[in-house]
């Protein structure tokens, strides 16, 4: 899934000791805690809970360090206007506890999350995030491929084609699951 020649910095011993696994229903409270601490507002934690409640989390992984959750990644459905038959996922959010950041945990979550997204038959993944971080995994500016987003993000809106040729000839607005808009509206 990574760009050719890209590497993930694995910072032993923490990253090596972390086990990445699928989230379970019993992880919900710990996931909320991780996401709440990793972001400056509670919006992302509310979003994850709402997506889970709506059954819209297609891929949800956690980073487990000796029985303590230290990271989380989620993927939910997105569609391209005019091409709903092309299955895509939005990566949102990625969260790692502040004291565990810079240890390669986020990179492992991204890499294994993309592998899981591919197994879930996603043709592409989009993300609103830091280009220098996500570019290491093969993400590119979505606007250069002719894709726009609902949030007015420019270079931070990126796309990764998981199935070669799946996006050929396609252009348009990529829409996140309706849960995103509902949570944003509710939180003004």
Task: Give a structural overview.
The protein is α+β, with helices and mostly antiparallel strands and about 190 residues long. It has one domain (about 15-185): 3-Layer(aba) Sandwich (Aminopeptidase). Helix content is about 30%, strand content about 30%. It has 6 helices and 9 strands; from the N terminus they run αβααβββαβαββββα. The protein has helices at about 15, 30-40, 45-55, 105-120, 130-135, 180-185, and strands at about 20, 60-65, 70-80, 90-95, 125-130, 140, 145-150, 155-160, 170-175. Strands 1, 2, 3, 4, 5, 6, 7, 8 and 9 form a 9-stranded mixed β-sheet that branches. β3 (about 70-80) and β4 form a beta hairpin. It is globular. The model is unreliable at about 1-10 (pLDDT under 50).
Descriptive terms for the model:
single chain; 188 residues; alpha+beta; Aminopeptidase; 28% strand; disordered N terminus
Give the SSE layout.
Layout: H1 14-17, E1 19-22, H2 28-38, H3 43-53, E2 59-65, E3 68-80, E4 88-96, H4 105-119, E5 124-128, H5 131-134, E6 140-141, E7 147-149, E8 157-161, E9 172-176, H6 178-186
Parallel strand pairs: 4-5, 7-9
Antiparallel strand pairs: 1-2, 2-3, 3-4, 3-9, 5-8, 6-8
Helix pairs in contact: 2-3, 3-6
């Amino acid at each position: 899934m990574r760009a050719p020649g890209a590497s993930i910095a694995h910072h032993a011993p923490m990253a090596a000791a972390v086990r990445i696994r699928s989230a379970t229903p019993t992880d919900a409270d710990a996931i909320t805690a991780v996401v709440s601490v990793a972001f400056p507002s509670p919006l992302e934690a509310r979003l994850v809970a709402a997506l889970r409640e709506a059954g819209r989390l297609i891929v949800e992984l956690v980073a487990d360090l000796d029985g303590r959750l230290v990271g989380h990644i989620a993927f939910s459905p997105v569609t391209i206007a005019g091409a709903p038959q092309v299955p895509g996922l939005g990566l949102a959010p990625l969260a790692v506890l502040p004291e565990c950041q810079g240890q390669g945990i986020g990179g492992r979550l991204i890499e294994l999350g993309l592998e899981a997204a591919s197994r879930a038959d996603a043709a592409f993944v989009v993300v609103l995030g830091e280009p220098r971080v996500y570019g290491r995994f093969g993400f590119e500016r979505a606007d250069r491929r002719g894709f726009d987003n609902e949030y007015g993000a420019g270079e931070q809106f990126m796309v990764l084609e998981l199935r070669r040729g799946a996006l050929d000839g396609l252009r348009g607005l990529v829409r996140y699951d309706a849960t995103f808009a509902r949570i944003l509206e509710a939180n003004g």
